[in-house]
Design brief:
CATH superfamily of the largest domain: Glutaredoxin
Strand order of the largest sheet: 4-3-5-6
Number of domains: 2
Structural class: alpha+beta
Number of strands: 9
Order of helices and strands: EEEHHEHHHHHHHEEHHEHHEE
Helix content: 40-55%
Number of helices: 13
Distance between the termini: 56 Å
Shape: globular
Strand content: 5-15%
Length: 305
């Protein structure tokens, strides 16, 4: 009897093994030698607009880099002078039409009317909460907080600098919202934020969103503003000095929705390279009936578990 037998895991058929008697296998994961700094702010509308592209970039190419969000400090407080003269923003009410324009262009829903009725007075409070969550827990939970805060602000028109709203957001993450928001209000909370501001300055960042990719030789690529998906992939190729990269396949829609909790139409379209007109058929094919809820806001569909 031939001793060189094998039962094939895929076919279930047992038979003679191939000619290879022994092979060396490297179980080491490739070292992530690239740092990707994402300089952002909770109330940055253009950062909200690039969520679909950035999510796909992280999902498919995140195995090449360490992803580090950096709080940039977009608005300390309103004052009599111009805040963003290039966009005609001198007072909170000026923000509303600018935000709505970004929302229409990107199809990531933005209401914006709270900036007339109940404006965010500073982006520092939610940024400090982000930093405290990051320090006390981990980057993933902090990033989820940032996502939930942006959903509340842009799509659902809630003031995320309000203490009660921040506490509620943190509580929904399964954390002690009152304790974390209280810690964020202490001087140590601002010190954590100042460290991010210093890092942003050292990276030469002057606006949001900015993504800076740096390799092990301390050489990098800076991508300013919202860009197409291919721009981030090309930037990564440059810092890795590689002509081709191996992307991971996109996750199934069911697993993505399970992880993200809420997805807007544009986010699904970008992740899976589908047209807006094909979205409904795609969702019906990928998700089990009764496993999700489809709703609409500001003319855009969104999906939750």
């Amino acid at each position: 009897m031939n001793d060189n037998m094998i039962c094939d895991l895929e076919t279930g058929v047992c038979g003679v093994a191939g000619e290879e008697q022994m092979e060396m296998i490297d179980f080491n994961q490739p070292k992530k030698s690239i740092e990707v700094y994402y300089v952002t702010d909770p109330i940055c509308s253009h950062c909200w607009a690039i969520e679909p592209v950035l999510r796909r970039f992280k999902e498919q190419y995140g195995h090449y880099f360490n992803f580090q969000p950096v709080m940039g400090g977009l608005l300390e407080k309103w004052h009599d002078g111009p805040i963003d003269p290039a966009n005609g923003i001198y007072k909170p009410a000026d923000v509303a039409p600018h935000w709505r324009e970004v929302g229409v262009h990107s199809r990531m829903p933005i209401d914006g009317s709270l900036m007339i009725d109940n404006p965010v007075q500073s982006s520092y409070p939610p940024s400090r909460v982000y930093k405290v969550i990051q320090k006390n827990h981990n980057d993933a939970v902090a990033y989820e907080y940032l996502r939930r805060a942006r959903e509340d602000l842009f799509a659902f028109n809630r003031n995320i600098s309000d203490q009660s709203v921040m506490i509620e957001l943190v509580n929904k993450l399964g954390l002690d919202g009152e304790a974390i928001v209280k810690e964020a209000e202490k001087p140590a909370g601002q010190q954590l934020l100042n460290e991010d501001f210093s890092l942003a300055r050292s990276l030469g960042v002057r606006g949001f969103p900015t993504i800076v990719m740096i390799n092990g030789e301390n050489k990098g690529v800076k991508i300013v503003g919202g860009r197409p998906f291919e721009s981030y992939v090309d930037g990564l190729k440059q810092v890795l000095n590689m002509e081709e990269l191996q992307p991971k396949p996109q996750p199934s829609l069911s697993s993505l929705l399970e992880k993200e909790k809420l997805l807007f139409s544009k986010e699904i379209e970008v992740m899976y390279d589908i047209e807006q007109s094909d979205l409904s058929a795609f969702v019906e094919k990928e998700l089990t009936p009764g496993s999700y809820v489809k709703q609409e806001i500001l003319g855009e569909s969104y999906f939750t578990k």
